[in-house]
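Structure tokens please, single chain.
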Amino acid sequence: MLAAASRARDADGMTEFGDTVDPEDIDRFAAHSAGWWDPEGSFRPLHRINPARLDFIRRQLLTSLGRDPRTLRPFDGLRLLDIGCGGGLVAEPMTRLGFAVTGIDADASAIDVARAHAEASGLVIDYHNAGIEQIRAIGERFDVALALEIVEHVTDRETFFAALGALVRPGGVFIGATLNRTAQSFALAIIGAEYLLGWLPRGTHDWRRFVRPSEFVLGLRRHGFAATRLAGFSYDWRRGGWAESGDLSVNYMVAAIRR
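Here you go.
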């Protein structure tokens, strides 16, 4: 059903992804899509933070879904939706853990990169140039949904949360990663990362769209989720890497169960 929807969309050239996608954001990311898998390129910050985020995701899912941590593929038989998958930096390791992964992104060039990289890596991942509202409209259901560094780009957050509530089965898990709306995040994520250090292209983020943890948790609650874990992620300047912390003031992640 999902494949048929994508073929129909491609055939008629549809480029509208609903109320949650900002076309300017898509254009901005598309300009850098060729570098998704370059650890020293435009997406270097994602490559750096990925090990810490993947460890958090694996631990939360093992606990919430009651899976055996001693196996190489503990999530065999389960479906995962990676929303805003980009070039596949998270979709690929999730596939190796056993999930049947569907990756969606409104940036067609990112999907092309993701498909090519998965094929070269011998991985089967169901990628689609689509938005969350389109996937909801065709009645898909998943055991897990991920939205990493996506919520701060969403134009209609309430519609986004409503779609999540429809896409994740009861008892399933949602995990999101985003930026808090604080003075610290403005200083570090925008002035520091975009203007001083050049870790991100200028204009990548709009501080007004950053999401406070309370807003995130309440938005999820309104659509059937109960938050189970909030964790901050901080950069260790001495070691040059990211680690989970109790500091939610800039980067943080939330895990929630669909009631």
